[in-house]
């Protein structure tokens, strides 16, 4: 009779034990929709002294989010993901109502990772007990603002955006009480704002920044890419190409801001012109290109030797606004 060697038998047993552990985790993702239920579930890991990693999202998940979740699971035994479309970070004329909401697909994706312990799905009324009208004059309650780095770049076009992000992230940190948290480089200014928030409010949380995940053509993945047709996605790469050209210029030693930016503007202008000439039924419109100081986020007039820079920009593709950035000799 064919006998399995003990070592082989052992590894088969281990394989099944590991499979059954991971499928246990898969089946037991705890979906928690209220603050008390989340707090009570969280309690056990304090007693067990198990570290918790937290990935906040607005859902409509893609590879960028999933990559953050995988990184989170490499750092901590317990992984929490939140899905909450936060009204406070949307301007009155922005896309709060049409923002993609794909909860069951999101949960499927998270289950397939086999590493998520809980998905926190709070309700707007619980996060904002005083209500959250989008007009600032009508708002009541507590808001958090990280002064100095919230009003330039993204803050120019979206003046209340980082107030909304800072407020909701502080609330989520208070509820989830993570030891580690994971944000994506795609939203570079958001990373700087959250880092400052953690430090200024003395949250005992270590922040990690995951690299930007891109489509094959270079376009940064984003939930809002769902608003774009394949043709729009194709022309949207002008932003990434412009940023890459600026970064390459810096890499080759060019330090003159105007020369660096002019190369980026040329790329955007060419794409804008082509879209117009071909009469494609949408327009490209540049919001901004920036070469900024990684700490103050102020525009760099002189790019000094040894000083890094965040090269970033925003582009309207039809009515959809996309953002992207590249880092030169710096981290977030
Ligand atoms: N392409 C990406 N690569 C890495 N991280 C990303 C990427 N896109 C988003 N993230 C990160 O995922 C987290 C949740 O982001 P969010 O849910 O707003 O998704 P999004 O794709 O940025 O959506 P939106 O289209 O609204 O900007 C944030 O920390 C964000 O920086
Ligand atoms: C951090 C965040 C989840 C806050 O709503 C959001 O701004 C996002 O998804 O980047
Ligand atoms: N990722 C940032 C979310 C927003 O643009 O609203």
Automatic annotation (TrEMBL):
One Pfam family named in its UniProt record: Pantoate_ligase
Domain of life: Eukaryota
Reaction catalysis annotation: (R)-pantoate + beta-alanine + ATP = (R)-pantothenate + AMP + diphosphate + H(+)
GO molecular function, one term: ATP binding
InterPro entries: Cyt_trans-like, Pantoate_ligase, Pantoate_ligase_C, Rossmann-like_a/b/a_fold
Pathway noted in the entry: Cofactor biosynthesis; (R)-pantothenate biosynthesis; (R)-pantothenate from (R)-pantoate and beta-alanine: step 1/1
SUPFAM superfamilies (alphabetical): Nucleotidylyl transferase
Record keywords: ATP-binding, Ligase, Nucleotide-binding, Pantothenate biosynthesis
EC number: 6.3.2.1
Name the record gives this protein: Pantoate--beta-alanine ligase
Family according to the record: Belongs to the pantothenate synthetase family.
């Amino acid at each position: 009779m064919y006998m399995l060697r003990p070592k082989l038998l052992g590894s088969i047993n281990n394989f099944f034990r590991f499979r059954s552990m991971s499928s246990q985790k898969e089946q037991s993702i705890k979906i928690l929709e209220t603050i008390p239920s989340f707090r009570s579930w969280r309690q056990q890991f304090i007693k067990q002294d198990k570290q918790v990693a937290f990935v906040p999202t607005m859902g409509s998940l893609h590879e960028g989010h999933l990559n953050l979740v995988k990184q989170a699971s490499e750092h901590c035994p317990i992984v929490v993901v939140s899905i909450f479309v936060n009204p406070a970070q949307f301007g009155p004329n922005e896309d709060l109502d049409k923002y993609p909401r794909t909860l069951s697909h999101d949960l499927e994706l998270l289950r397939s990772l086999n590493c998520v312990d809980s998905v926190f799905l709070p309700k707007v009324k619980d996060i904002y007990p005083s209500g959250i009208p989008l007009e600032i004059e009508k708002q009541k309650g507590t808001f958090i603002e990280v002064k100095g780095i919230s009003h330039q770049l993204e803050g120019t076009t979206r003046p209340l955006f980082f107030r909304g992000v800072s407020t909701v992230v502080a609330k989520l940190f208070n509820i989830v009480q993570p030891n580690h948290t994971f944000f994506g480089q795609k939203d570079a200014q958001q990373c700087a704002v959250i880092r400052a928030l953690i430090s200024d409010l003395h949250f005992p949380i270590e922040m990690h920044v995951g690299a930007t995940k891109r489509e094959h053509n270079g376009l940064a993945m984003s939930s809002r890419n769902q608003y774009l047709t394949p043709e729009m996605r194709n022309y949207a790469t002008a932003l990434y190409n412009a940023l890459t050209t600026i970064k390459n210029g810096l890499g080759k030693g060019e330090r003159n801001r105007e020369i660096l930016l002019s190369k980026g503007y040329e790329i955007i202008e060419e794409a804008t012109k082509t879209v117009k000439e071909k009469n494609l039924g949408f327009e490209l419109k540049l919001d901004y290109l920036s070469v900024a100081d990684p700490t103050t986020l102020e525009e760099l007039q002189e790019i000094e030797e040894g000083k890094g820079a965040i090269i970033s920009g925003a582009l309207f593709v039809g009515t959809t606004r996309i953002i992207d950035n590249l880092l030169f000799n710096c981290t977030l």
